[in-house]
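Thread: Modeling a multi-component assembly for a lab meeting

Hi all, long-time lurker, first post. My supervisor asked me to bring a structural picture of a complex we are working on to next week's group meeting, and I have zero experience with this. I have the sequence lines for every component (411 residues in total). Could someone generate the structure of the whole assembly? Inputs are pasted exactly as I received them:
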Amino acid sequence: MSDLMTRACELDAADPLAHFRDEFHLRDGLIYLDGNSLGAMPKATAARMDKTLHTEWREGLITSWLGADWVNSPRRIGDKIARLLGAEAGEVVVADSTSINIFKALTAALSLQEGRSILLTEQTNFPTDHYMMQGIEGFSGGRVQTKSVPPEEVLDHLSDDVAVLLLTQVHYKSGLARDMAAVTAKAHAHGVLIVWDLSHSAGAIPVDLNSANADFAVGCGYKFLNGGPGAPAFLFAAKRHHHAMPVLSGWFAHARPFAFEEDFDAADGIERFLCGTPGVLGMAALEEGVDLMLRADMAAVRAKSVALANLFIEAMGQHCGDYGFTLVSPTEADKRGSHVAYSHAEGYAIMQALKARDVIGDFRTPDVMRFGLTPLYLRHTDVVEAVERLATICENGEWDTPEFKTVASVT
Ligand SMILES: *Cc1c(COP(=O)(O)O)cnc(C)c1O
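Re: Modeling a multi-component assembly
Sure thing. I ran the full set together rather than chain by chain. Output:
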């Protein structure tokens, strides 16, 4: 056994989170390093779905909106996610997709910024963040302009014309983590409101929205929160902004949805950030993922995430140092989220070959291989084993086949 593997075994034996692995369905032999893209399935989720389908829907039918509290699920699960994000009860709702929540947060922030017209972001932000901004600009009839600048310069472009800064806290490719409190303070010093995209932060790193004085935030339910494929997303609005109006004025955002009034009258609280009827099946699955996450101590999650990443990087240096991989993520642990990324000219084919050896990570164009490190269900030995399998693939060149080089529609 290599020295690193011996050390990994010792770390596993002393791991205070080790028992969480058994709460997930994971096939023997599989090393799943893509929980930053789709979290693994908690065992409790199947029983919950069964109850939601067979007791609540089949038997309870429409009475379950009240009887099983379906109607309050956006707020109830939002309150739970708030605890993971340093927010108060009543500041987070679960609804829609992250893309739609970006639209709602941006338009609500814009409604507070009369006289300012620019939506600012950085060029390498996640594409949907750009696209949603561009859609708002197009619809605004000249009221709004988007501005996208190099990532390291974004804070230099804060000014009196900027209405809102939209940033992802943990970068989806590099894993670079921005200092939420420092960046928020800089934005506020220029009168700029900030919308944080927490897609790779929620359940991955400790987040403290209110001590950072954040304005709005959004993020995914299906990544580190293990809510299931296409799980509903969340939206945070600081209490002081609950009078802001997101453009989407659906009936679930109304103060009295079941009064069936003709005219829209927005709910006072975070409910005004809802739109239509919640997808109850998705909500039920998400709640199981969130409940499981809440049982883990976030400081222990962070400590293990750092240990896993450091071990992965060390193993890459030791076993794959000669094969042309370049670390894209920051080397300092406190500047990283909970995934590590490497670039390699043949990254796509190598990732395919790795999957054939039962190590699942993912690939992001043009040349980035991403490895998600999820402390609830990964062992330290898994990351060393993954790098050993990667070294084997590089040593014998088994990635170098037409089959592994054909790019699929989902990467
Ligand atoms: C995954 C991700 C999204 C996904 O948005 P959806 O609307 O759920 O498809 C958005 N932003 C970031 C930064 C992401 O990483």
